[in-house]
Amino acid sequence: MQLQDKRRVAILSAYALALHGFESLLPTPIPWLKPGLANIITLVALILYGFRTALMVTLIRVLLASIFIGTFLGPAFILSTGGGIASVIAMGLSVKFFKNLFGTIGLSLIGALFHNIAQLSLAYYLFIQRIEAVFIISPFILLIGSLTGIINGVISDILIKNLLKINDEKIQNVAQ
Amino acid sequence: MKETIKNTTLADRLLFLLLISLSIAGIFISRDALSQGSDVIIEINGKPSYTLPLYSDRLLSVSGPHGNTLIETKGGKVRVKEAHCRNQICVKEGWISKGVIVCLPNKLVIIVGGSKKDQQQGIDAITG
Fold first, then answer.
1. Which of A104, A163, B6, B97 has a CA 20 to 30 Å removed from the CA of B68?
2. What residues of chain B, 21 to 50, have a C-beta less than 8 Å from chain A?
3. Which residues share a beta bridge with B43?
4. Is the CB of B9 inside 8 Å of chain A's CB atoms?
5. What ipTM goes with this model?
6. B28 lies in which domain range?
């Protein structure tokens, strides 16, 4: 890995970490109901710099955030790790196999969906073990996840467009 | 913002519609499945005495002032098979999958759709 890549991963991880930390301070009606703002950074990393960067950013973010917030190795840590990895893998596979099918918003939706699926199944196997409880809450979680997925997708799309624009201007300046 | 929404692909929109409709449908389906309940609660003299799983084939005999009453559960339904009261209202009610069968002479109430909430017949609130 080159120095530039390392720097990129570090900056993206810092952004993701800040969003994750900010999100954990937001008051929510249900404790583990979060908008998943850090997924914006994951998505940007995935689209601009590829799968490996996105996975690394997610892993660093989940690990460091849990240490800072104080949930390291606790149930919340296991859930957010599983959800983060699942969503990165799902989005990465979608980029690879359906390259022109899904836009940024579609990818964000896929990420949110798999994040929730992974969390629900982990919560079921490890903590709840009552299928009817999972059955009742999962539609709500999927609905809210889709709505926040749309919002995150829109933000990511705007961010990616602006980043590309800045990049183009830089290249033009260098060329002149 | 407008541009972003305009630039979504067909697959994006289909995925969004699918997810939203599936989850809204899921909310109603799960609520429906829940309201049916999976337990039969048998109350004698106003006290919950027996709890049977609805999805099992069983025959239960409950004694009351007018002799034994035979309650049968089968395939998600429950009925009073035999009772020795005069009106036989409970027997005539037949198989039910939700709701209540009441046999007044035997002081017997059979409730279907009991979740844990129905069993807690505590006090709602105390004032003063």
1. B97
2. 22-27, 29-31, 33-34
3. B48, B109
4. yes
5. 0.79
6. 2-35
